[in-house]
């Protein structure tokens, strides 16, 4: 018996993204993405791996939809590969690519599963990067809005929601400040420019979809964490406040308050976004939203004093991320106090664990505990007045974990990459029971 309860129409989902699962990188007219190119740069991805084949979901999606139906989820969050539907990121669209998402959405609806679409989960058409430096260029925001309109027209009548971006912090920061992700730039000013253009593209897309009469709920997905100082010393607390401003408020404040946080702007100094911010941008970025998606994995630990992160009550995942469920309650209650927000979905939450497939079973007890603790923390936030609409476990399948390649497994379904055999892990059985129990409890009310 689980200890948490959610409202009657709570959305129980699983999430994935295009480049991480689809494969079929060179089929049916798909263009190249920045990740196709990045994976070929020696040393960027563990074992030189790529999403060329991944989970071969492009060919096996019917089987994967059956898995979801078997789990009893009522929603599936997926992303659309921009280069699959518009190979160059501008100009002609690719009918075969669009047809794939058509089949996917229809397959979900046929199984009673609500499709939650994300327009951008990091796979920018390579042509836009090569021709105009991708998100560094303001024009890419306008190309994104055109692409959004196309998807709105093609799928808007059938999907349950459209999120513009997934985790723009990762695109901006990991892709451009540290070079850890595609396109691999290590330049703070570029990162600030990219972040601004991502936010702008979000607002432009929302405006364009609304202008086209798309009625689907629209939102954005942000990765967020509370930030804690190593000690209560003023320098540690100041470090935590700055990290929170750079990670959370850098995206939330423009969208919900119409400005960048002064604290982080000060830190960026001459490397900030000022050269690319134009009059009227914040009105576009602040276009009203129907939902906010939050991806939660861990907390930020900030130490100016050199104090190390303590081992923690729940330990660490295979990504070496601290398991800190109470941070989810803390984050959501703080957001609820700081902003006027639309309903919130937890659009990702999960953990990589060292899984072993033995005799057809994967005993991923750590993952079950992780989900259990975080769902309880989420229910706490709901009790404290946060409007929590749903939860998407990351991820349905083991998949291509970006710079970590296939080494890290986040799925509740195990994938044997040599055979593409799917096996439900213990956590998948557990999640099915939780969903069923919840549905049963609701029915007997
Ligand atoms: O796999 C990623 C996903 O693409 C974005 N959010 C975090 C996950 C785990 O690292």
What class, by secondary structure content?
alpha/beta
Q: What's the name of the CATH homologous superfamily?
A: Glycosidases
Low-pLDDT runs of 5+ residues are: none
Compute the number of helices.
Answer: 15
Order of helices and strands: EHHHEHHEHHEHHEEHHHEEHEHEEEH
User: What's the CATH class, please?
Assistant: Alpha Beta
Q: What is the number of independent domains? A: 1
CATH fold title: TIM Barrel
The largest sheet has its strands arranged as 1-2-3-4-5-7-9-10
Instruction: Name the CATH architecture.
Output: Alpha-Beta Barrel
Which ligands occur here? 5-hydroxymethyl-3,4-dihydroxypiperidine
Helix content: 40-55%
Number of strands: 12
What spatial form do the alpha-carbon principal axes imply?
globular
Write up this protein:
This protein has 445 residues and is α/β, with parallel strands linked by helices. The chain has a single domain (11-443), classed as TIM Barrel. The chain has helices spanning 18-21, 34-39, 57-71, 82-85, 95-110, 126-132, 138-155, 168-176, 188-211, 234-257, 262-268, 281-285, 326-338, 365-383, 426-443, and strands at 11-15, 75-79, 114-120, 161-166, 218-223, 227-229, 291-295, 300-302, 344-348, 388-394, 413-416, 421-424. The strands form 3 sheets. It has an 8-stranded parallel barrel, surrounded by 6 helices. Helix 14 (365-383) links the parallel strand 9 and strand 10. Helix 7 (138-155) packs parallel to helix 9 (188-211) and helix 8 runs antiparallel to helix 9. The longest helix is centred in the middle third of the chain and has 24 residues, at 188-211. The site of 5-hydroxymethyl-3,4-dihydroxypiperidine has 8 residues, from loops.
């Amino acid at each position: 018996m689980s200890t948490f309860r959610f409202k009657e129409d709570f959305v129980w989902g699983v999430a994935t993204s295009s480049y991480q699962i689809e494969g079929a990188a060179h089929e049916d007219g798909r263009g190249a993405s920045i990740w196709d190119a990045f994976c070929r740069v020696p040393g960027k991805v563990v074992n030189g791996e790529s999403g060329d084949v991944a989970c071969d979901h492009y060919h096996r999606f019917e089987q994967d939809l059956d898995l979801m139906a078997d789990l009893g989820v009522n929603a599936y969050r997926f992303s659309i590969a921009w280069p699959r539907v518009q190979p160059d990121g501008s100009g002609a669209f690719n009918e075969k690519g669009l047809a794939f998402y058509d089949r996917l959405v229809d397959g979900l609806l046929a199984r009673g599963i609500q499709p939650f679409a994300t327009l951008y989960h990091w796979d920018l058409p390579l042509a836009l990067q090569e021709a105009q430096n991708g998100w560094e260029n303001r024009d890419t925001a306008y190309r994104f809005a055109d692409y959004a309109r196309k998807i709105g027209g093609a799928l808007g009548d059938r999907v349950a929601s459209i999120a513009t971006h997934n985790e723009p912090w990762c695109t901006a920061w990991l892709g451009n400040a540290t070079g850890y992700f595609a396109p691999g730039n290590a330049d703070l000013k570029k990162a600030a420019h990219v972040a601004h253009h991502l936010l702008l593209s979000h607002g432009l897309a929302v405006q364009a979809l609304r202008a086209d009469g798309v009625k689907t709920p629209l939102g954005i997905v942000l990765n967020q964490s509370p930030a804690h100082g190593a000690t209560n010393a003023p320098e540690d607390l100041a470090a935590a406040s700055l990290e929170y401003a750079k990670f959370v408020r850098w995206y939330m404040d423009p969208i919900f308050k119409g400005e960048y946080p002064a604290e982080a702007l000060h830190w960026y100094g001459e490397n900030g976004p000022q050269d690319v911010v134009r009059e009227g941008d914040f009105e576009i970025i602040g276009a009203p939203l129907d939902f906010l998606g939050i991806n939660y994995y861990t907390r930020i630990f900030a130490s100016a004093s050199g104090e190390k992160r303590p081992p923690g009550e729940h330990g660490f995942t295979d990504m070496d991320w601290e398991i800190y469920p109470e941070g989810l309650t803390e984050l959501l209650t703080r957001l609820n106090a700081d902003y006027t927000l639309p309903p919130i979905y937890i659009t990702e939450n999960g953990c990589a664990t060292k899984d072993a497939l033995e005799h057809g079973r994967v005993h991923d007890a750590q993952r079950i505990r992780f989900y259990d603790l975080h769902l309880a923390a989420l229910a706490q936030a709901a009790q404290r007045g946060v409007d929590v609409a749903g939860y998407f476990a990351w991820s349905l399948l083991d998949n291509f974990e970006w710079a970590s390649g296939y080494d890290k497994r986040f799925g509740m379904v195990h994938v044997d990459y040599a055979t593409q055999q799917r096996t439900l892990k213990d956590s998948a059985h557990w999640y099915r029971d939780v969903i069923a129990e919840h549905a049963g409890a609701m029915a007997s009310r």
